[in-house]
Specification:
Elements lengths: L22 H10 L4 E4 L6 H6 L1 H22 L5 E7 L22 H20 L3 E6 L1 E3 L12 H13 L6 E4 L5 E2 L1 E3 H13 L7 E4 L5 E2 H12 L5 E4 L14 H4 L9 H11 L1
Parallel strand pairs: 1-2, 2-3, 3-8, 4-7, 5-10
Antiparallel strand pairs: 6-9
Helix pairs in contact: 1-3, 3-4, 7-9
The structure holds uridine-diphosphate-N-acetylgalactosamine.
Length: 279
């Protein structure tokens, strides 16, 4: 769950605190406002949570999307685009790399199944009813204000938390699951925003899904080396056995996104510097 204090203060921002599963609220919002763009980012973002509570997460991650699509079809006749956020999780552990949008889909968890099903509905609403929709498949997103407290937080927010403790001379260490050779395509939040705006804006993205990453992967060992070097500090590491269900390597082919004019502006080095500067 995000924090309200992370929102910018702006007269142009109206914040409504509610759930996407609240049908009355959603109908009120969609019937009484005229939207140009809708970015759908609401979800239970934890794969582990979806495994623990498949029914509840299905209501949030799938059913609410279908309800939203119906409301958009009914009330938002002038909408320019709805962009739905899906996940690299839809590719599962199928080992062919890099992942292309046409790669084999193998959703292995309720989270991944719901993301894929919702994404397909979102795109079908374009093909079947002319609702202007697109979808994005996020790889490993990182950036300021991620909450490191949850055990399911992204590894970079956990790492940054440990480095901050170390800098304040608090005794800490990082638990690395596996041997550190697993790799991920970590994409900085500002590049994610660039991707979302392009996908929302370009006529050629209508009815399609796009990988959002950098096109480059880094191993966890190398990532820790990079941050050690930026901060000139050595993070103590405790090694534990691999996390169950972890995939080994993940990297996006982003040529479809590139064709819209996207360039990943932040290498892991640049993104980490910007992130650490903002803390
Ligand atoms: C990401 C997404 C997940 C799903 C999945 C699809 C996040 C938080 N998770 O999982 O929602 O979309 O991709 O494939 O974005 N690790 C440690 N120590 C820690 C935490 C993590 O060693 O304290 C390792 C973890 O075992 C994994 C790697 O770091 O090998 C990345 O973990 P992650 O949870 O940030 O992301 P991932 O790719 O497993």
């Amino acid at each position: 769950m995000g924090k309200e204090e992370n929102l910018i203060e702006s007269l142009n921002l109206k914040f409504i605190n509610g759930s996407v599963t609240d049908k009355n609220l959603m109908e009120e919002v969609l019937s009484q406002n005229k939207f140009d763009y809708i970015f759908h980012l609401a979800a239970v973002a934890s794969v582990a949570d979806s495994v623990a509570r498949p029914v509840e997460t299905h209501q949030i991650n799938f059913e609410s999307v279908l309800s939203l699509l119906e409301l958009v079809r009914k009330y938002q006749k002038d909408l320019k685009r709805l962009v739905f956020s899906s996940s690299a999780a839809v590719y599962g552990d199928e080992p062919t790399l890099p992942k292309k949008e046409e790669s084999v889909i193998r959703p292995l968890t309720p989270y991944a199944v719901d993301k894929f099903a919702a994404e397909q509905y979102v795109l079908d609403y374009n093909h079947l009813y002319g609702v202007p929709t697109s979808a994005v498949r996020f790889f490993n997103v990182y950036g300021p204000n991620q909450n490191p407290e949850s055990p399911y937080s992204g590894v970079i927010s956990i790492l940054v938390d440990r480095y901050k403790k170390l800098q304040s001379e608090v005794d800490t260490q990082f638990t690395l699951f596996g041997d550190g050779s697993q790799s991920r395509d970590f994409v900085f939040i500002e590049d994610v925003i660039q991707a979302l705006l392009l996908v929302a804006d370009k006529p050629e993205s209508l009815g399609k899904q796009f990988n959002v990453g950098t096109g480059n992967a880094i191993t966890l060992t190398k990532l820790i080396e990079v941050i050690d070097e930026i901060l000139d500090i050595k993070l103590p590491i405790e090694y534990e056995s691999e996390r169950e269900g972890d995939i080994k390597d993940s990297v996006a082919n982003i040529s479809r996104l590139n064709s819209l004019g996207y360039e990943a502006n932040f290498s892991i080095n640049e993104g980490m510097k910007r992130y650490l500067d903002s803390e």
